Amino acid sequence: MKSIAVVGAGKIGLMIADMLSSTGDYAVTIIDQYEESLARVKLQVSAVETRHADASDQSQMEEILKDKFAVINCCPFNIGKTIARAAVAQGAHYFDLTEDVASTRIIKDLAKDAKTALVPQCGLAPGFISIVAYDLAKKFDTLHNVHMRVGALPRYPSNALKYNLTWSTDGLINEYLNPCEAIVNGKLREVPPLEELETFSLDGDDYEAFNTSGGLGTLCETLEGKVKNLNYRTVRYPGHRDLMKMLINDLGLGDRPELLKDIMEASVPVTMQDVVLVFVNVSGTKNGMFVQETFARKVYSREINNTLRSAIQITTSSGICAALDLMVEGKLPQQGFVRQEDICFDDFVANRFGRNFMDNQNTVGSHNPVESEPAVKKIA
């Protein structure tokens, strides 16, 4: 069994600990600074160890990680660099879910002298979306457009925002506030968040999409000089973007993110009844013809290990658990900075966790939630 530390006992950290421990291949320790969060873990996931510690204290993290194969960081983006430094110091592989570009740059610098692998931006977006887009892109002779669209949406929207909280409020606000990377007419650029609004329909439902930061991961760097246009946009129901712009720009809450977080968490309810939409379009030339290829999936909330999990929990947790599995299996680099593009799409979707994205009932055109659970097969 591999000894794994999961830092952060929130919705995603709790599910990751549950998924990994239920395989029998991982001995999981979950770390949090709040005793009430650890008490909730003990009630829901019996097969894990819990540790009380402050993840922003590097010395505490080094003590915990000294005998660990890997650490999975599920904390807010501003703590990532401390956990990564502790992992490098103790020779543990590092994984995280961050959408924060600045944090990823720090982790990339740390990886230059590391003896283990640092694998940031696992999850959905960034994460799986980059694996899909790169797999499609590398099959073209020349690339024209790479368009990546992802949304975590309530199945039954009932408020003016047409939105419910399904994951980290800090991460949500961060991606709405920060500049976004894109390649425009062959040039790497920063574009403003909440702009370049577009609308589209899928399966008879109407959606909008707009710029948000971090979803591309390192794909701009990877495809710079090889593609004319590359962009990532978040999908919401129509009208959401305009209301968020009003809150962030007109009311000035973009300058007071903690207040915006308090307002949203007090006013926008959490839901477990959600759907994750993944939509990638790539166009370019193949054998002298101008063609387009599309990948589209919907993933629904469902029960896993006898507990109802939201779609964003399932996709985010599956992404990082699959990356860890592939590291253990020797299918990822064992040292240095590992991009999501380094993960082979075929290896990912064949993985016991990665296949949560690929069940036949998840294809666009089907409105039926998936009922099957991920395979639990021990690693030899």
How would you describe this structure to a colleague?
This protein is α/β, with parallel strands linked by helices and 380 residues long. It is 33% helix and 27% strand. The chain is built from twelve helices and 17 strands. A hairpin with a 2-residue loop joins strand 8 and strand 9 (187-191). Helix 4 (80-90) runs parallel beside helix 5 (101-111) and helix 6 crosses helix 11 (311-328). The longest helix is centred in the C-terminal third of the chain and has 18 residues, at 311-328. The radius of gyration is 20 Å and the shape is globular. 48% of the residues are buried.
What keywords describe this structure?
single chain; disordered C terminus; alpha/beta; 380 residues; 6-stranded mixed sheet; 12 helices
Helix content: 25-40%
Main sheet summary: 7 strands, parallel
Distance between the termini: 10 Å
CA radius of gyration: 20 Å
How many DSSP E strands? 17
Which geometry do the CA atoms define?
A: globular
The oligomeric state is single chain
**Which regions contain 5 or more consecutive residues with pLDDT less than 50?**
366-380
Mean pLDDT: 92
Task: Give the number of helices.
Answer: 12
Strand order of the largest sheet: 3-2-1-4-5-6-17
Structural category is: alpha/beta
SSE string: EHEHEHEHEHEHEHEEEEHEHHEEEEHEH
In terms of DSSP E residues, the strand content is 25-35%
